[in-house]
Amino acid sequence: MSRLRGVAVLSLVLSCLAPVFAARAGDGTVDVVVRDVTVIDVVDGTRLPHRDLVIDGGRIVAIVATGAPRARKATATVDGRGRFAIPGLWDMHVHFGGGTALIEENRALLPLYVAHGITGVRDAAGDLSDSVLAWRDAVAEGRELGPRIFTSGPKIEGKDSIWPGDLEVENEAELDAALEGLVARKVDFIKITDNTLSPALFMAALQKVRDRGLVSSAHIPMAVSVADASAAGLGSIEHIAYAYKAGAPDEAALSRAFAAGTLDTRAVWEGAEATFTDDSARAAYRRLAANGTAVTPTLNGSRVVAYLDEDDHAGDDYLRYIGPGLQATYAWRVGRAAKDDAEAIARRHARFERQAAILPLLQAAGVRILAGTDAGFLNSFNYPGVGLHDELDLFVRYGLTPLQALQAATLNGARFLGHGDTHGTLAPGKAADVVLLRADPLTDVRAVRAIDTVILQGRVHDRAALDAMLEDVRIRVAAMPAVP
Ligand SMILES: [Zn+2]
Fold first, then answer.
1. From ligand 1's centre to the CA of 94, what distance in Å?
2. Exposed, middle or buried by CB within 10 Å (0-12, 13-18, 19+), for 187?
């Protein structure tokens, strides 16, 4: 073990050993006070300057004017001058997977998220559910350094799906048994995808999930209209393409034609593109909003693949944090994109631009937008950690305000998952998951990259600790076998 690795490991071990819920000193001493910070209210976008953020027992216990009596003695004090406090970011669409040989590579992503200000991730299924469920509990209990994990466990699919790790069902009895099993494992939501699942079973799954009081998240079969899926209680649409299809005035007819075999997938997309108007989309999105269906656009993953001809990412510095086995899974999408000729490349650029442009229409219609990257295995160069910062940049580039982008990465996710009472904003009683930034994110959302300190479950990780965390990930990754 090198001396550097020894230092990095030691710092991690020490930070993990600190108790999550520190014993009360009995004299009113609290765990942490962040002094004289500007608190960002992500609900309405106000800035509250010169505040002391008082943290105890893993929770925010008070936010008071700097110097007020409540901001008393603290075990640790953080200088908040010139800093902006936001709630910890949540990446609402990540994956852990790639086979059991990659368990340690996936586990190394946990501190990578934290080092980028991400204190919560929603795992949208993969083939390492046993590990992810164990990490979820270990993080919650303070035994593992990582973001809070909300997971679907394995997702619902049809027989012989292309995706590894799925629960494959062919009839309602198998569907019921699959849902029973997921409930027993206390999953946080139910993910359903459409590779081989029949449209009828897909609709049955939406109903059954809603009947059980659970939240669903899905890829929608081409034969089903997004409007019908939303009306049946779909919780969140994963990937903006489906929301685009929903905006076509004849979406129902296109879906029926696909079901009847008179249109293929390509013809459905071309039909949607030929008829889409902002007005038809606005009406459709108001219905999504009324039904409470959220949209996770996952723009970053789509953008990277759409523009691989302009940037092959081979020289990205960030690859030092990604294990060789995970990098090897990137080849699948890179290989598919490499087959495209000039016309196909132009088409995928145009399709990305057209779809990303609906973002402000969704927002204006009142649809809850969730910031999620789709980072993890398979999704080439869409990096766990910094990918969420890229996603927020894209949200602003395509028409959201910095505040709306921040909401998508904080309170929208917490509310979607039913944790709005404990997470998503900075207020007394909320979890002490806080990121201190060196610039104002309401002025320029790129400020989320200027991370000074991450407070996770009440524990303070300053810039030096975050750098040590990153260095530890780099060293772990460098020591991993070339390709398992
Ligand atoms: Zn995904």
1. 6
2. buried
